[in-house]
Amino acid sequence: MPASVRIVIDTNILVSAFLFGGNPEQVIQCVRRGSATLLYTNEIRDEIEDVLARKFRWAETRLRQVCRPYWKLGVRVDPRIRIDECRDPDDNRVLECAVAGHAKFIVTGDRDLLTMVKFRGCEIVPPAAFLDRIAD
């Protein structure tokens, strides 16, 4: 495994990491340690912040305190192509980010994405599988 592997972390994993910890938090720790490089788009960032604000009633100050440092750890990419491979458009945005950023992994708990297993050379895995692979 290279020193820093490029990854896209899906919304469900980031929200779980911020709220509950566990393996999703360990994935974020890989980014903080530099063993993984986070890739994200403006759409992914906005979706995560919207979910935290709307579903979990996070105030703007809490969003700034938690999310802004996290985005500074990552690399924002700007996809030039549109993908329409999943029934959920938000899943397509994750695929677009992975392709544009040359990601090796998409880390997700989303069943629709996980059933794909791989997309254009990018492995789609749950957090525990990612942590196992990065430890190899």
Entry summary:
By secondary structure, this protein is an alpha/beta fold. It is 54% helix and 15% strand.
Search tags:
single chain, 136 residues, six-stranded mixed sheet, 6 strands, globular
Please, could you describe this protein's structure?
The protein has seven helices and six strands, in the order E-H-H-E-H-H-E-H-E-H-E-E-H. A six-stranded mixed beta sheet has the order 3-2-1-4-6-5, sandwiched between helices. Strand 5 (118-119) and strand 6 form a beta hairpin. The model has no long low-confidence stretch (mean pLDDT 93). It is 54% helix and 15% strand. The protein has 136 residues and is α/β, with parallel strands linked by helices.
| Fraction of residues in H or I helices | 40-55%
Strand content: 15-25%
Strand order of the largest sheet: 3-2-1-4-6-5
- Give the SSE order as H and E letters: EHHEHHEHEHEEH
Q: What ranges have pLDDT less than 50 throughout 5 or more consecutive residues?
A: none
Number of DSSP-assigned strands: 6
How large is the count of helical segments? 7
- Sum up the overall morphology in one term: globular
- Report the mean per-residue pLDDT as an integer: 93
Distance between the termini: 7 Å
Cα-atom radius of gyration = 14 Å
